[in-house]
Write a structure and sequence with these properties.
Blueprint lengths: L6 E6 L9 H17 L4 E4 L13 H10 L5 E8 L5 H14 L4 E6 L6 H7 L3 H6 L1 H12 L20 E5 L3 H9 L3 E3 L8 H11 L11 E9 L3 H7 L1 H12 L13 H8 L1 H6 L3 E4 L1 H15 L3 E5 L5 H18 L1
Parallel strand pairs: 1-2, 1-9, 2-3, 3-4, 4-5, 5-6, 6-7, 7-8, 7-9
Length: 334
C-alpha cells in the first residue's frame, strides 16, 4: 500500500562539471537548494567523499553551513557524514553548532563507509577499520554528546547538549538495517547506486524496528537517480553524463562531469553491461509522464516514506529544471 504522502528530497555531491571552478560548483549547489526550497523539497543533503576530483563535498559540515545560510526553510544535512573518518566528539560539536545557528533545520545522517579508497581512508584515520567496526558505539557517543543529561560528564560537547539535530542511519547493505531498527532511527538506503540489497534491507528494518524516543514507527528514505526533461529523448541525452560517470567509477578513472552527447549505440551497450545495469536499476530517466510511472511503481514496491533524488546533470540550469519537473510529478502523485 502506498503512503498517502511521500516526501521528496535531494542528495547532492556538489559534482564538479568540466570547465567549472570549485567556487562556481558551490554557487550552483546553493542556487539548486534555493530553488528546491521553492519547489517543496523537504531536505537537501550533502555526501562526504574524499580524493575524487569530481566531488566537491568533502568538507561536508562547512558546505552544509554555507547552504543553510543561503536558505530559510529547507532542512540541510549530511547524507552522510562517514563516521569512522571522524571523532564523534568533533562531529557533535560541528553539528551542535550548525543546529544552534539554524534551529530545527539540520539533519545528521551517518554512514560507516569511508567515502573513498583504502589508502585515502588510512590517510584520514590510521585506525579506520577499527572505527568502522565500532560504528554502533560511535553513534551511541554522538547521542550522548547531544543529550542534555551529558552536562555532568567529564567529556562534553557543550555546544551540542540539548540541541535538536535528528540522526539518520545510512546504508547500502543489510548491516545498517539491523542497526537503524535496533536504535529506532530513520533509515536512508543508498539505492541510487547500491541496488542489490534494497528490498532485503527494508524488510529487516521494518521487521526488527524498535520504537525509540526519536521515532515511533519505521521511516525509510530511498535514494533514486532522477533525470527529467521535457521529452524522453532529451532526458536520455542528459543521462549520458551519468553513464560516463558510472563507467569512471567502475574503471577507477574518475573525471569531471562530462557534457552530454547523443545516446550512441556504444553507450546503449555500456548500459547493458551487468555492473552498470545493476547500478542503474533505480534510475528513472525520461519525460515527466515516463518518470512518474516509474516512481509510482518504485513506491508501490518499497513503500518508502521519502524519496531522495540524485540528479547528475552537467549543466546547473538543466539540473534545476529536472528537479522542478520531479517536484511537479511528486505533487501529482501525492
Amino acid at each position: 500500500m502506498k503512503n498517502s504522502h511521500t516526501s521528496y528530497s535531494i542528495l547532492d555531491l556538489a559534482l564538479v562539471s568540466e570547465g567549472n571552478s570549485l567556487k562556481q560548483t558551490y554557487n550552483d549547489a546553493l542556487k539548486l537548494a534555493q530553488h528546491a526550497e521553492k519547489y517543496g523539497y523537504t531536505r537537501y543533503w550533502l555526501a562526504e567523499h574524499h580524493n575524487a576530483p569530481n566531488i566537491a563535498s568533502s568538507a561536508t559540515s562547512i558546505l552544509i553551513g554555507y547552504i543553510a545560510e543561503g536558505t530559510t526553510t529547507l532542512r540541510i544535512g549530511s547524507g552522510g557524514i562517514m563516521l569512522p573518518n571522524h571523532s564523534p566528539l568533533l562531529v557533535a560539536e560541528q553539528f551542535g553548532t550548525l543546529g544552534s545557528l539554524y534551529p530545527n533545520r539540520i539533519d545528521l545522517g551517518l554512514g560507516r563507509a569511508p567515502g573513498t579508497d583504502g589508502e585515502t581512508a588510512k590517510a584520514i584515520r590510521s585506525d579506520f577499520m577499527e572505527a568502522a567496526h565500532s560504528f554502533p558505539n560511535e553513534i551511541d557517543k554522538i547521542q550522548k554528546y547531544f543529550s542534555a543529561d551529558n552536562s555532568t560528564a567529564k567529556v562534553r560537547a557543550t555546544v551540542a547538549e540539548g540541541v535538536e539535530v535528528p540522526l539518520y542511519i545510512l546504508g547500502s547493505s543489510t548491516d545498517s538495517a539491523h542497526l537503524a531498527a535496533k536504535k529506532g532511527l530513520p533509515y536512508a538506503f543508498a539505492s541510487h547506486f547500491a541496488t542489490t540489497h534494497l528490498m532485503e534491507a527494508l524488510a529487516i528494518y521494518h521487521n526488527e524496528f524498535q520504537p525509540s524516543k526519536d521515532l515511533e514507527k519505521p521511516y525509510v528514505l530511498a535514494g533514486v537517480n532522477i533525470i527529467v526533461a521535457d521529452t524522453d529523448e532529451e532526458a536520455q541525452r542528459l543521462s549520458t553524463s551519468l553513464i560516463r560517470m558510472i563507467v569512471g567509477i567502475l574503471t577507477g578513472k574518475r573525471d569531471y562531469v562530462q557534457p552530454p552527447t547523443a545516446l550512441t549505440d556504444d553507450l546503449k551497450e555500456v548500459m547493458q553491461h551487468p555492473q552498470v545495469y545493476q547500478m542503474l536499476k533505480y534510475s528513472f530517466i525520461g519525460s515527466k509522464a515516463t518518470v512518474k510511472d516509474q516512481v509510482k511503481k518504485f513506491l508501490a514496491e518499497t513503500n518508502a516514506d521519502e524519496l531522495i533524488a540524485v540528479t547528475h546533470i552537467y549543466d546547473a540550469n538543466e539540473r534545476i529544471r529536472s528537479y522542478e519537473l520531479f517536484a511537479e510529478l511528486m505533487k501529482e502523485l501525492n
